[in-house]
C-alpha cells in the first residue's frame, strides 16, 4: 500500500490545552510517523501513512480532541509519496516554530480541574495544599501570556524554573502536564503570603487569611487576573465596613460560595444556570434569591437577585476548607470604572485604608481580566460582562469580512475593544470606564498586546463611536494616524444591533435598542429606538420613544427626579409640577426645594438641557416617583430596583401609551405614561403593581412598533439589545408578543446586551461596509 507525506495545519484553540500530546498519542496508537509542533498561532502536523490512515487520523483527532480545545479547521495537504530518503522513523513532538502567523486563538483562563484539585487535597501528592497547581486542562492562560506561540518562555511562568519533579512531568508526552506552561509545585512555583505593611510569618497563609476574614476583617486577595476585596457575608458588620471604606453605599456585591449545594441555601437556579456556574469558565451568575435567603440583606440591597460564583483556583478552594461561612464577598478591588489592581506594590498602596490585610503572591499578572458576569433571560444566558474564562476566544466573522484588519474601540462605559483579523473577531477583556485616565492607559496597553497576540501588524480601518467627546473616539483618531488607517465612526445603537446580528449570523433583522445613553445622528441622546439593519452595514431608524428634556444633562442620570421633571414639564401645569416636586420629592434633590425652582428655570429657558429618548431614563423616573429609589448610586440601580419591586406586584393593570407619526417615524408618548403613574399613585394603587404595568406598557408598545416595521420589510427576525434587556420581565414581554405574531425572536446569548459588545458591532458594521465595496 502506498504511503504519503501529509501536511496538516490545525486552527482553533489548540495551544495550551494539551493538543500536541493528544496528537502524539493518537499517532503512536495508529503507528504513524512524523511530528507535531506549535507553529505561530496554530499546530502543524506532518504524517506519513496511507490515505485511509491519514483520513482516519483526521476523523479520530476531531472526535477525541482535548476537552478544552476547539478545532475550527484542519487543512490537509497530501504532498508526495514516502520514500526511503524522506521517511521518518518515529512520531515526535518537536520544538515550536515562529515561521508563520496563522490565525491566533489564545485559550482563555480555565478553572482548576478535578484531577488537580484531588492532588491538592491528597497528603501524599507533591501538590498537596499548593494553590497554583495546574495542568493542560486548567489554570491561567490569557492572563500570563506575553507572546505566541504559547510556550513557557513566552509567559510569566518563565520566572519560575522547573524543579526536577515538575520537569519530568513537563517533558513526558504521556503526562497531562506535558508542556502545560503553568506547571509548578511548592519547590519551584509562585508563593503566597500574608502582608500588612510587612510579610506576616505564617506556616499556612491561606488558613490564616480565612481566619482573618471570619473575624470580620477585609482582605485584598490577589488572584489570576486581578485582585478581590473579600469579607464574610453572614452578618452585616463586615459588609457595612467595606461599603463605608469604598463609598459604595448600595452597589450589589458578588459572592463566592464553595459549591452548588451551599449556593442552594440562598439562591434558586435552573439546571442550565447550575451548568453555567460549574462550567470551566466559572463566571458570576446572577441568580434569584431563595425564600430561605440566609446571607446579609446588605449584600445586594433592594434587589431580588444575587451574583454568585464558584471557586476557580486552588487558592479559592483552600480558603473554603477552613471556614463555615456559606459565602465570601468577592468584589473587584478597584474603584468603579478604574482598572483592576495587579501589581503588589500598587495593591498595597491603593488599598491602604480599605483592606485590613493582604493575601498576595509573586507571580506577575500580565493581562488584567475581571470576572465574567452572566444573567439568564427567557431561559437563555447573556453576558453582562464577558471577560475571564471567555477572552480572547474569537467570534467567526468569516461571512462578514476576511480581508481587512479592523480595530474597534467601543463607547466610553463598560468598554471593550475588538480586533477583526482573517475573519475572526477578538473582543478584549472588560476594560471599564475610559473617562478615567488610568483606564484609558490600560486600554492602550491592552490594544497593543492583543494586536501582538493576534499578529495583527497593520490596520486597515479603525472604528469608533459617533460621540465626539468620548476618550475612545479621541484615541481612535490618534491610532488612525499612527497606523495610517481610515477612521469610521459608528452610531451607538447601530453597533449594539450589529453585534446581535453578527452573533446570530443573520443577514437582516429588526431590533429594539433600549438602554441608558447613546449619541444619535441628530445630536440627541438615543436609547429607545426600533431599527432595521442588514449586512450592507446600513440601518434605518423607524422611531421609538419621544425625546424628553434632561435638565442638567448628566445630573438627570444621577438624580433621576430631575429626569422625571423633564418628562412631566410639557404635560403638567408649571405650578402644579413645582408643588408636586416640593411637597413629595424635595428630599430627592441634592439641594431640596431650591433645586426644584432651579430645575424649572432650566426647563423654561432650555438651558443646559439635553434631550433623550432613553428607555433607561424613563424607567429610572418611574422608579423615583414610586419611591423605590431616590438617586443612582451605581449604573442601572433605579431600573434594577424597579424590576425587583415589580416582582412583588400583580400584573393586572393596563396602561396605554399613545403614539404619533412624525417625519415618517412613529413616536411613543412617554409623558402620558408618567402622568398615568402619578394618577395611580394618587389613587392609592400599590407601587409594585404600577411597576409591573409601566414596564409592560413600554415593552409592548416597542414590540408592536417592531412588528409593524418587520412586516414592512417582510423580514421574520426581531431582536432586542441594550442594557434594558437585562431586565427579565421586559425581555419576556417582548418575546411573547413577537413570537405570538409568528416572528423569530433573538437576544444576546454569547455577547453583551449592554455596551460590552458595542466594539464587536462596530467591527461588524465596518466589515460589512468594506466587504461590500471589494
Which helices and strands, and how do they pair?
Layout: E1 4-13, H1 19-29, E2 33-39, E3 42-49, H2 51-63, E4 70-81, E5 91-93, H3 114-120, H4 164-170, E6 192-195, E7 199-200, H5 205-214, E8 219-222, E9 227-232, H6 236-246, E10 255-256, H7 260-263, E11 267-268, H8 271-278, E12 284-289, E13 305-309, H9 314-321, E14 328-332, H10 344-350, E15 357-361, E16 373-377, E17 380-385, E18 395-396, E19 406-408, E20 418-421, E21 424-427, H11 437-453, E22 461-465, H12 471-482, E23 486-490, H13 492-503, E24 508-519, E25 525-534, E26 539-545, E27 548-551, H14 555-558, H15 560-568, H16 574-584, H17 593-605, E28 609-612, H18 615-625, H19 637-646, E29 659-662, E30 665-668, H20 670-682, H21 687-713, E31 717-721, H22 728-740, E32 744-746, H23 758-772
Parallel strand pairs: 2-5, 8-15, 10-13, 12-16, 19-22, 22-23, 24-31, 26-30, 31-32
Antiparallel strand pairs: 1-3, 1-4, 2-3, 6-7, 6-15, 8-9, 9-14, 10-14, 11-12, 12-13, 16-17, 18-21, 19-20, 20-21, 24-25, 25-26, 27-28, 29-30
Helix pairs in contact: 5-9, 13-23, 15-18, 16-17, 18-19, 18-20, 18-21, 19-21, 20-21, 21-22
Amino acid at each position: 500500500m502506498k504511503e504519503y507525506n501529509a501536511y496538516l495545519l490545525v486552527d482553533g484553540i489548540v495551544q495550551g490545552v494539551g493538543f500536541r500530546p493528544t496528537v502524539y498519542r493518537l499517532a503512536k496508537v495508529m503507528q504513524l510517523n512524523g511530528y507535531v509542533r506549535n507553529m505561530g498561532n496554530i499546530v502543524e502536523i506532518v504524517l506519513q501513512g496511507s490515505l485511509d490512515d491519514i483520513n482516519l487520523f483526521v476523523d479520530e483527532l476531531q472526535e477525541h480532541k482535548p476537552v478544552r480545545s476547539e478545532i475550527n479547521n484542519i487543512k490537509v495537504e497530501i504532498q508526495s509519496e514516502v520514500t526511503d530518503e524522506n521517511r521518518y522513523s518515529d512520531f515526535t513532538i518537536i520544538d515550536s516554530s515562529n515561521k508563520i502567523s496563522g490565525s491566533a486563538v489564545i485559550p482563555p483562563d480555565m478553572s482548576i480541574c478535578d484531577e488537580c484539585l484531588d492532588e491538592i487535597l491528597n497528603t501524599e501528592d507533591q501538590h498537596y495544599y499548593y494553590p497554583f497547581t495546574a495542568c493542560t486542562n486548567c489554570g491561567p492562560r490569557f492572563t500570563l501570556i506575553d507572546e505566541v506561540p504559547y510556550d513557557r518562555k513566552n509567559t510569566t511562568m518563565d520566572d519560575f524554573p522547573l524543579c526536577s519533579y515538575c520537569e519530568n512531568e513537563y517533558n513526558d508526552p504521556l503526562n497531562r502536564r506535558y508542556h502545560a506552561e503553568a506547571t509548578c509545585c511548592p519547590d519551584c512555583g509562585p508563593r503566597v503570603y500574608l502582608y500588612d505593611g510587612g510579610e506576616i510569618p505564617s506556616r499556612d497563609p491561606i488558613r490564616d487569611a480565612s481566619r482573618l476574614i471570619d473575624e470580620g476583617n477585609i482582605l485584598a486577595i490577589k488572584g489570576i487576573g486581578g485582585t478581590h476585596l473579600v469579607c464574610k457575608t453572614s452578618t452585616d458588620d463586615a459588609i457595612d465596613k467595606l461599603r463605608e471604606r469604598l463609598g459604595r453605599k448600595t452597589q450589589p456585591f458578588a459572592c463566592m460560595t464553595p459549591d452548588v449545594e451551599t449556593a442552594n441555601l440562598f439562591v434558586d437556579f435552573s439546571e442550565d444556570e447550575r451548568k453555567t456556574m460549574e462550567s470551566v469558565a466559572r463566571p458570576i451568575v446572577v441568580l434569584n434569591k431563595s425564600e430561605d435567603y440566609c446571607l446579609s440583606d446588605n449584600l445586594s440591597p433592594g434587589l431580588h437577585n444575587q451574583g454568585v460564583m464558584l471557586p476557580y483556583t486552588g487558592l479559592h478552594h483552600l480558603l473554603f476548607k477552613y471556614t463555615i461561612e456559606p459565602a465570601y464577598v468577592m468584589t473587584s478591588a478597584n474603584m468603579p470604572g478604574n482598572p483592576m489592581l495587579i501589581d503588589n506594590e500598587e495593591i498595597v498602596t491603593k488599598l491602604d485604608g480599605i483592606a485590613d490585610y493582604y493575601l498576595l503572591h509573586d507571580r506577575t499578572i500580565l493581562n488584567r481580566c475581571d470576572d465574567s458576569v452572566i444573567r439568564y433571560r427567557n431561559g437563555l444566558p447573556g453576558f453582562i460582562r464577558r471577560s475571564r474564562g471567555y477572552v480572547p476566544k474569537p467570534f467567526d466573522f468569516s461571512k462578514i469580512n476576511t480581508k481587512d484588519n479592523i480595530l474597534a474601540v467601543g463607547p466610553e462605559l463598560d468598554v471593550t475593544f475588538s480586533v477583526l483579523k482573517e475573519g475572526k473577531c477578538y473582543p478584549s477583556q472588560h476594560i471599564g470606564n475610559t473617562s478615567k485616565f488610568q483606564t484609558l492607559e490600560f486600554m492602550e496597553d491592552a490594544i497593543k498586546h492583543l494586536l501582538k497576540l493576534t499578529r495583527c501588524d497593520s490596520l486597515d480601518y479603525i472604528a469608533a463611536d459617533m460621540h465626539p467627546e468620548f476618550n475612545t473616539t479621541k484615541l481612535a483618531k490618534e491610532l488612525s494616524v499612527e497606523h495610517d488607517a481610515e477612521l469610521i465612526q459608528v452610531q451607538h445603537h447601530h453597533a449594539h444591533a450589529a453585534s446581535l446580528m453578527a452573533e446570530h449570523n443573520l443577514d437582516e433583522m429588526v431590533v429594539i435598542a433600549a438602554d441608558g445613553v447613546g449619541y444619535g445622528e441628530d445630536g440627541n441622546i438615543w436609547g429607545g429606538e426600533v431599527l432595521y439593519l442588514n449586512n450592507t452595514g446600513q440601518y434605518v431608524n423607524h422611531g421609538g420613544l419621544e425625546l424628553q428634556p434632561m435638565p442638567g444633562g448628566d445630573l438627570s442620570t444621577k438624580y433621576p427626579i430631575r429626569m422625571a421633571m423633564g418628562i412631566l414639564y410639557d404635560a403638567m401645569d408649571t405650578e402644579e409640577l413645582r408643588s408636586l416636586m416640593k411637597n413629595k420629592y424635595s428630599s430627592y434633590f441634592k439641594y431640596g426645594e431650591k433645586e426644584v425652582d432651579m430645575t424649572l428655570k432650566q426647563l423654561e429657558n432650555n438651558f443646559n438641557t439635553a434631550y433623550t429618548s432613553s428607555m433607561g431614563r424613563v424607567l429610572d423616573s418611574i422608579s423615583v416617583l414610586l419611591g423605590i429609589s431616590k438617586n443612582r448610586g451605581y449604573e442601572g440601580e433605579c431600573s434594577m430596583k424597579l424590576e425587583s419591586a415589580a416582582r412583588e406586584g400583580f400584573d393586572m393593570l393596563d396602561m396605554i401609551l399613545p403614539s404619533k407619526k412624525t417625519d415618517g417615524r412613529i413616536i411613543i408618548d412617554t409623558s402620558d405614561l408618567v402622568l398615568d403613574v402619578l394618577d395611580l399613585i394618587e389613587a392609592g394603587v400599590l407601587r409594585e403593581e404600577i411597576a409591573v404595568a409601566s414596564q409592560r406598557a413600554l415593552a409592548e408598545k416597542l414590540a408592536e412598533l417592531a412588528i409593524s416595521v418587520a412586516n414592512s420589510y417582510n423580514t421574520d427576525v426581531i431582536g432586542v439589545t441594550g442594557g434594558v434587556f437585562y431586565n427579565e420581565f421586559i425581555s419576556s414581554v417582548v418575546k411573547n408578543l413577537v413570537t405570538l405574531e409568528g416572528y423569530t425572536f433573538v437576544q444576546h446569548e454569547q455577547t453583551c446586551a449592554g455596551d460590552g459588545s458595542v466594539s464587536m458591532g462596530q467591527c461588524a458594521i465596518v466589515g460589512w461596509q468594506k466587504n461590500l465595496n471589494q
